[in-house]
């Protein structure tokens, strides 16, 4: 940004037409020349300049994708904002080669009776403690664990867990376990016997996606919006039931049938897709239907609504919303804590054949990748005296230990990090193929950094050291 | 009666010879005759199709025209393989039935010892027989049992090769014990068949072409040989038959004053159907 | 007659193994085996200047396959379109072809006791479908087509854009799976996955070298013996036989 603005390479016209706060931004980035970034990023100032020039050359066809899973260090809102501002300077929102604008589609609504008002509000802090995490968002599971542990803002006595493996996916596993112990009741709806079913009072086995209908999948953020329908290929096996059936049955037995005013999935689906001008039989035979999209500013029509859904209707480089909430209105740099002596930063990610912690027990996918490895730089492996393929135990800064995991000594990682694929080291004995295969990153994430703006949990603030397989420090 | 049944072959008078030539001794049970020809047919079919199934240029021995002809007869090699397997399984099944039902009669040690065990006479026979064939000696052949040493040798070969051929065939058909064993089974199958075929060369020649053994060939159709042939070629067996007859005769006719029968009269009694052990 | 080929674009492949799973599902391939699979080449260079690539392996449907003559029963054959196929009715699962393949493309399916491998989804081709792996590839990294058809994408990639075969001077049997990618991709591929010299299984070696000769000798010798005796019999006559 410093280079683009100081050398006047940004999209002046686009910024003056669609953005506010340019003056403030210009002042702000003066303090961050490439020479300032060089020691932090380990990328030479010259290369940073070259990159800026290349981007300017290609603008607006530059897509700076924020990536998936962006909660790292607790300052993630600001990092995401920095990337978004860079995209704006290149004039890439709603321009060919840049970032698409979403196209709304008219979705059907099934009128429901109003929900009873709660005086106490949400327990997870979404919308209150973290005002920008709106109630429409999915909520904060980590906030719910905290609320359960502290009985603040009020005691929580029961959980119904659905669609998530709380012990594998929520960091600070020790807290989650403690919260579960405090509960009076826990029901788990899951397709797999993951670890949490061991703690449940009631387990409701859900049918897999191949055996059930799901709500229509309506995607508006693609180049062309589309609707897809999931339909069962076979009848549910054993005692499992589709999620919709479980929900509707529970509601009717609790006297809440009014909240499920549809007969069956066909009825539900037809009413939701009714305004799309396509009938269910057609959709079922096609599987998915795409509609005309308006991904670029030039295509936008009145019906698409404002190009930028902010208060001003423009890109707010300088955010008055953040300023009002006493946050930095322009992204500030916060230094990341380096690993202590003898420790490596634990980072994690995904393998293309596995989805979260849900697919490791699948026979075919397990065959492709039965366990994860911990990647460490070749020099680090040599320093710790571990061989490629050797099984080791990792211990984090709080003394949490992993299951044995094989080392992958590679050049493809920084020398201050250790990486592993998430989702392994399963603790549910029912997962016959995945049980205790590889190590779980979640088990080593005992510390989190909460982003004060959105309340999200940064999880790359844990450090591990290498113990040999018998648990001794190597 | 001792005096009439010789312990070593002696020259016969022409009358004696003529009389003996008229007398038949039962050599093979009808079941054995049938089994022999069933076996021969099976072998012929299996050899013909087996040769047609090995098409790899690395292992093939049959000429291309033969492979093509066989494929043409069966329509496809897959059919040929099915046929080969079907005939093979039938062969195994029949032999199994034979082994189960004929067990007491044919397959106990005493009989095997008697029929395929080689003794000193047999070894000498083999030596002289070979030299005779080559025209290198005039020495007479030592006396032989029900089967001569050559037949015994062939039987030994066949008895050891047949289980190998059956087991390897089954292994390949049903993919028993996995890839490595199947690969070895393939080679063993070929090897065992090869050995038997080299033995068959002699067996067929001796049985069907060689003049002196012609009665043996016919015996595989009628089940009987004439006594003269038995006397000349299987003297020890001939003697066993005679001794046995003598015993029966003694039991049947206990009267001591009965005069000694001449060998020809003795032979009359052989019309008794169970006169020979087999 | 079409000449089928598969082109794999190494610049597009992300190693997601979708092709492996699609193939497994289509052909009921048991765990631990594959008709096609994706393997990562080594990582070369030092951090952060690194190169790596993926090798998508499958049957190459070679012009001069080594597996076909290796098969004792002729179960492995090349059809008219050049696709190397296995006739399960003839296969006894001896593994001779598995050893003979320089690309490790074959395996013995223990469930059925037969050899299995990629056949370019011949039955799908007959129904006008693409091979399962091609149909499923999310990155369009696998292109299947007819090299006799100059308008096909495969033709363009092979004859216009220099997609190449994975061959060495020792093993050049005309594979019909081509790889498109930068020179460094090719280098990585050859370093990790160059074709191996075809092997012959031990029983096969013994068969073709020793046993064939031995059996020929044994049968030949006995036959010769008979012939000598027969001619002797003819010359001497049957006088000794006093029947």
Low-confidence stretches of chain B: 265-278
Task: Record the strand order, biggest sheet of chain A.
Answer: 9-13-10-12-11-16
**CATH T-level topology of the largest domain in chain A:** Rossmann fold
CATH architecture descriptor text of chain B = Up-down Bundle
Question: What kind of assembly state do the chains in view correspond to?
Answer: heterotrimer
Largest sheet of chain B: 2 strands, antiparallel
**Strand percentage of chain B:** under 5%
Work out the count of structural domains of chain B: 1
The chain pair forming the largest interface, with residue counts per chain, is: B-C, 47 and 51 residues
Describe this structure in words.
The complex is a heterotrimer of chains A (474), B (278) and C (243). Chain A is α/β, with parallel strands linked by helices. Chain A has 16 helices and 16 strands. Chain A folds into three domains: 2-99 and 298-324, 3-Layer(aba) Sandwich (Dimethylsulfoxide Reductase, domain 2), CATH 3.40.228; 141-290, Rossmann fold, CATH 3.40.50; 344-468, Barwin-like endoglucanases, CATH 2.40.40. In chain A, 27% of the residues lie in helices and 14% in strands. In chain A, strands 9-13-10-12-11-16 form a six-stranded mixed β-barrel. A three-stranded parallel β-sheet of chain A has the order 2-3-4, with no helix packed on it. A three-stranded antiparallel β-sheet of chain A has the order 5-6-7. In chain A, strand 5 (217-219) and strand 6 form a beta hairpin. Chain B has 278 residues and is mainly alpha-helical. Chain B contains 13 helices and two strands. Chain B has a two-stranded antiparallel sheet with strand order 1-2. Helix content of chain C is 34%, strand content 18%. Chain C has eight helices and twelve strands. Chain C starts with a strand and ends in a 7-residue tail after the last helix. The model of chain C is unreliable at 239-243 (pLDDT under 50). The chains are: A alpha/beta (474), B mainly alpha (278), C alpha+beta (243). At the B-C interface, helix 4, helix 8 and helix 9 of B face helix 8 of C.
